[in-house]
Amino acid sequence: MARYFDVHPVNPQRRTIDQAVELIRQDGLIAYPTDSCYALGCRLGNKDALDRIRQIRHLDDRHHFTLMCRDFAQLGQFVHVDNTVFRAVKAATPGSYTFILPATREVPRRLLHPKKKTVGARIPDHPVARALLDALGEPLLSSTLLLPDHAEPLVQGWEIKELLDHAVDAVIDSGDCGTEPTTVVDFSGDEPEVLRRGAGDPSRFE
Question: Which among 107, 134, 144, 148 would be 20 to 30 A from 63, CA to CA?
Answer without folding.
Answer: 134
